[in-house]
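Priority: low. Protein: Cell division ATP-binding protein FtsE. Input follows.
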Amino acid sequence: MIEFDRVGKSYDGREEVLSDIHFRLARGEMAFLTGHSGAGKSTLLKLMMLMERPSRGNIIVGGQHLGKILQRQIPYYRRHIGVVFQNHQLLFDRTVFANVALPLEVTGTPVKEVARRVRAALDKVGLLKKEKLNPMQLSGGEQQRIGIARAVVNKPPLLLADEPTGNLDPELSADIMHLFEQFNQVGVTVLIASHDLALISHLRHKLLTLRDGRLMVGQSTEVLA
Ligand SMILES: Nc1ncnc2c1ncn2[C@@H]1O[C@H](COP(=O)(O)OP(=O)(O)OP(=O)(O)O)[C@@H](O)[C@H]1O
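Result:
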């Protein structure tokens, strides 16, 4: 599903933030990406989203060589990836339903189909009853669930998350991680950047650790060992 082959990234010709990054994530696999602040976690996710281009090396996502994707093709490529951010980036001038419907409207999905899919996504995150509310009326944990519903409403085969539990207390954070696991159990490939090592150590998935620009691959249950 994801393959990084000797990828390097430097900004503005300065020292490399990522060096010689080499890893694979199989279709249907789930992994955590960790590392200290500034280690390059967001940069690695941005390379997969084509928000940044590597300085060297090759990246393949879903069978596509990212180096061959032209600038104008990027919006189409991104439709296959669901993205969840720490600050959920919801629009507070519209309802929960309208927020989750956004990715479908962009692709011109018929209205009936939009309603069906939005409700299915809200049901999966346990917030079907809140569709008419404004996101402002929801708790932080609920807002994050709305962000996740919006990320999965298109049924993307790949879900990327950047510190999705950053603002949440431990219990809510665990709930959010379990939600990602549920999507993974139905076949979605999931990669989550997080520095919440206590939480990660309780879940058994692949662990990608960035240190001094290099990547090490291990198991999340060994993270505190
Ligand atoms: N657009 C940019 N231009 C220049 N430097 C950048 C840019 N984006 C990130 N960097 C630098 O690259 C390094 C890695 O940043 P990145 O945001 O990928 O780290 P991170 O591991 O996600 O950090 P955090 O956990 O604090 O979010 C940092 O030194 C940062 O200052």
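The CA atoms of residues 112 and 134 lie 22 Å apart. Residues 11, 17, 35, 37-43 surround adenosine-5'-triphosphate (CB under 6 Å).
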